[in-house]
Amino acid sequence: MSPIAITLIILLFTTIMFVTEKLPLAVTAMVSTMLLVLTGILEPDQAFAGFVNSNVILFVAMFIVGGALFETGMASKIGGVVTKFAKTEKQLIFSVMLVVGLLSGILSNTGTAAVLMPVVIGVAARSGFSRSRLLLPLIFAAAIGGNMSLIGAPGNMIANSALQELDGVGFGFFEFAKIGLPMLLAGIIYFVTIGYKLLPNRKADGEIEGKEEDYSDVPKWKQNVSVIVMILTILAMVFEKQIGIKLYVSGVVGALVLVVTGVMSEKRAYTAIDWKTIFLFGGTLPMATALDQTGAGSLIARSVIGLLGSDPNPLIMLIVLFVISATLTNFMSNTATTALLIPIGVSIAQTMGADPRAVLMAIVIGGSCAYATPMGMPANTMIYGPGGYKFNDYVKAGLPLIGVSFIVSVILLPLFYPFF
Questions:
Q1: Secondary-structure percent of the chain, ordered helix, strand, coil, rounded to 5
Q2: What DSSP state is assigned to residue 175?
Q3: Beta-carbon-side half-sphere exposure of residue 198 (alpha carbons within 13 Å)
Q4: Which of 218, 301, 342, 397 gives 348 a disulfide partner, CB atoms 3.0 to 4.6 angstroms apart?
């Protein structure tokens, strides 16, 4: 059997396992990696190169830096201050979506949603608002917010890694916000107008009350240091070129400062690291290498382009990539969706002679639109019980939001990232 055929079979297996989640996603990624080694498609050093990738180091560092903000209660305090000034249900939806969207741009979107969920539930209980009308906007904003910065979501880093391989530069720190910020604003407008009417209004079975954590025993200096370190780390990343320090180095410095000063213990720092993301990221990179080395990626790219004709319209290609990515991400991890489509997208760009930034951005933005199912991303599943939701609640409120994101993307992507 040819290397291309073997690679495509492993890709098909990986796709099916990602979609069905018969195994944990990270385990599937590692199984895929080992299959590529055992079949001789990749050498062991090629297969495990992803785990010494600079982006993995950045992930680990930012999990610790972001974890300190959660650990000290500062993330909860920020959310509580803003929601306190919301007097009506629509004002609360506006405030929640704005805060969550901006925070998840620099912190884990799942972590942001997890911290602010009890805050929102507590506000709902005190105000008499239905939590089922507040929690969906919360997690949708967290998903959109991942498009606000380079570290907003793992998929952004996967795309950046692929682009760095091609041009040696990659995306700018806030480059995703060119699309992400308008998407967030459009999403907020949608939910305080049309989307508001589509939100369910029901009580959860057994109504589990949100329990707000008590951070009163956390020393004030720890809270202040966690915020200062986060701000300085982000600033260092924003001005990476000016100061000459790589993103991951700034992240590691920030993480070390937090541990050395005692803001986070060594044990808590290890706990803050999402090892599933690390193994998923490191385990999916070898597939990109295999698709490139064997020519399987080029074959897929030529097949996709062939279906669209000998001279495909760039806008149609952008729409196709966005729709495929947005569809897959609602049934499998958005990180896995992006990791799966990025190498194929790179091959398409190279075959067409198109700017890879346009292709990668379309895939990443489409992959963030995990609004229409409870399994679209961890935060979706997290609110399913507390919100008393049904599967169709996500579909009813989420599908139109995907449409809103699609319209914003189709308008802005060709402006900021033309194919040619």
A1: 70, 0, 30
A2: T
A3: 19
A4: 301
Of residues 282, 353, 255, the one with CA closest to residue 47? 282
For 394, the token pair is: 């996500």
Quickly tell me which residue has 């969920």 as its tokens.
117
> Tokens at residue 337, please?
């969706």
pTM value is 0.72
Measure Cα distances from 379 to 142, 143, 356, 383 in Å: 8, 9, 30, 7
What are the structure tokens assigned to 143, written together?
Answer: 């998903």
Query: Tell me, what amino acid is at 121?
Result: I
The CA-atom distances, in angstroms, between 152 and each of 4, 102, 142, 315 are: 34, 10, 10, 26
Instruction: Dig out the tokens for 70 from the structure.
Output: 């959660």
